[in-house]
């Protein structure tokens, strides 16, 4: 994971951070218990300066006792002395672990939202810059009607904006903890103490508590991240297509070459983003399977999460960072984009010819059949669609030379592009 792990995201998933968050929760719970009179006054003030995270000692203790949280508590009690007996009072392991995980998830989602916002801003600038830069549209890998690069980027911005909003909802969903005891009944930990402790930690209470925070919350966050990854993949895949030698309309700011073929300019970053999106999607299945646990809980989800959550968030963080760099540094060859339209033998304007014939009174079926016949001749002969249409008496009887010329005027075809920009509040 080091290759795709960037700080500060990577730092949220270290063992030292995990123990640090456990300690944060334990101390918040202790202070809250003292506030409601369960723990003797002054206990927190005496204990708090003594306890610290000692990773090596905790791991050594875990090897002896076979339970990570028990080992953690015993090491804290060694440090704290007699007052250490009040740590973890009335709590179960999931109280501490799930609440600590909520703190990590909250901060991790915040980091992703910072980067998704930065990517949205970059896409907005890119779309505005190229809003009137014409290029061939393509459907099914075939020439379609002209569009603009800015309109293509506006669609990316629309998708990424929704991805950003899903992350916001996911933050609210996962930023919940619980300090309710073994099966969530508050048998030995008062609800008022939970309220105080969670408020000090900056998370909401999970209601009803149960023994664990329901894993469908985590699954929702994983899905939001996977969907965001699919949006990044959509952008990267398009860059890969447009970078093809036979198209060459864009290229990455730093394409990589080949060890064997010096002429190569491979869109490695885009390919990497597409590959990593597969990892994010692969996280959704296990996160859904983690939802159904035996009775009040079992441990089947724990081992999955120890791998899945750090990987998902770390990869997503990397992808958002590199996606912004991809958009910011993308080399756009506008002249080549225009040349591609010109070299398409007028085929991207076939609908305009079809509709002109329909307006002249020809049935749509006949118009479609006649324009397709002319279009196939244009392909076979390498000639322009309008030129061949001008040689067809069935067409020229209905359309003048000026009308045939008008169907291929780019400004007319793209006159409403600004409408989409206005509707999204981008630009003027």
Structural notes for this entry:
- The structure is a single chain.
- The model has no long low-confidence stretch (mean pLDDT 96).
- Helix 9 runs antiparallel to helix 11 (300-329) and helix 13 (350-360) packs antiparallel against helix 14.
- The chain contains 19 helices and 6 strands.
- It is mainly alpha-helical and 428 residues long.
- It has helices spanning 15-35, 43-47, 55-65, 68-80, 93-129, 149-174, 191-201, 215-242, 268-282, 284-289, 300-329, 334-342, 350-360, 364-381, 385-389, 393-396, 401-406, 410-413, 417-423; strands spanning 134-139, 142-148, 176-177, 204-205, 250-251, 331-332.
- A hairpin with a 2-residue loop joins strand 1 and strand 2 (142-148).
- It is elongated and about 100 Å long.
- It has a two-stranded antiparallel ribbon with strand order 1-2.
- The chain starts with 14 loop residues before the first helix and ends in a 5-residue tail after the last helix.
Secondary-structure blueprint of this entry?
Elements: H1 15-35, H2 43-47, H3 55-65, H4 68-80, H5 93-129, E1 134-139, E2 142-148, H6 149-174, E3 176-177, H7 191-201, E4 204-205, H8 215-242, E5 250-251, H9 268-282, H10 284-289, H11 300-329, E6 331-332, H12 334-342, H13 350-360, H14 364-381, H15 385-389, H16 393-396, H17 401-406, H18 410-413, H19 417-423
Helix pairs in contact: 1-5, 1-7, 3-4, 5-6, 5-11, 6-8, 8-9, 8-11, 9-11, 13-14
Features:
428 residues, mainly alpha, Fumarase C, Chain A, domain 2, two-stranded parallel ribbon, elongated
């Amino acid at each position: 994971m080091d290759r795709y792990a960037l700080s500060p995201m990577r730092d949220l998933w270290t063992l030292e951070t995990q123990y640090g968050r456990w300690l944060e929760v334990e101390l918040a719970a202790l202070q809250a218990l003292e506030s409601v009179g369960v723990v003797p006054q002054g206990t927190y003030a005496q204990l708090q300066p003594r306890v610290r995270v000692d990773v090596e000692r905790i791991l050594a203790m875990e090897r002896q006792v076979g339970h990570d949280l028990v080992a953690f508590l015993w090491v804290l009690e060694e440090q704290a002395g007699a007052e250490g007996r009040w740590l973890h009072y009335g709590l179960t392991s999931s109280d501490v672990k799930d609440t600590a995980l909520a703190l990590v998830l909250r901060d991790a989602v915040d980091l992703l939202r910072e980067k998704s916002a930065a990517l949205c801003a970059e896409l907005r600038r890119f779309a505005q810059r190229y809003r009137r830069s014409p290029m061939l549209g393509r459907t099914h890998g075939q020439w379609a009607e002209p569009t603009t690069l800015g309109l293509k980027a506006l669609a990316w911005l629309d998708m990424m904006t929704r991805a950003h909003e899903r992350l916001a909802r996911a933050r609210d969903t996962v930023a919940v903890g619980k300090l309710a005891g073994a099966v969530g009944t508050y048998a030995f930990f008062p609800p008022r103490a939970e309220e105080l402790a969670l408020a000090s930690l900056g998370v909401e209470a999970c209601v009803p508590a149960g023994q664990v925070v329901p894993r469908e919350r985590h699954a929702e966050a994983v899905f939001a991240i996977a969907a965001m990854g699919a949006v990044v993949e959509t952008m990267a895949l398009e860059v890969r297509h447009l970078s093809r030698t036979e198209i060459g309309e864009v290229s990455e700011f730093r394409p990589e070459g080949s060890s064997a073929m010096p002429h190569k300019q491979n869109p490695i970053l885009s390919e990497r983003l597409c590959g990593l999106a597969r990892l994010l999607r692969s996280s959704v299945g296990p996160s859904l399977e983690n939802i159904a646990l035996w009775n009040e809980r079992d441990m089947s989800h724990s081992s999955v999460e120890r791998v899945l959550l750090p990987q998902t968030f770390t990869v997503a963080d990397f992808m958002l960072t590199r996606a912004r760099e991809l958009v910011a540094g993308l080399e756009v060859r506008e002249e080549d984009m225009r040349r591609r339209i010109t070299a398409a033998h007028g085929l991207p304007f076939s609908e305009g010819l079809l509709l002109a014939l329909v307006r002249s009174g020809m049935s749509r079926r006949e118009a479609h059949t006649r324009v397709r016949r002319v279009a196939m001749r244009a392909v076979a002969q390498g000639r322009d669609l309008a030129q061949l249409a001008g040689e067809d008496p069935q067409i020229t009887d209905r359309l003048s030379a000026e009308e045939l010329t008008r169907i291929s005027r780019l400004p007319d075809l793209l006159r409403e592009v600004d409408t989409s920009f206005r509707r999204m509040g981008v630009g003027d």
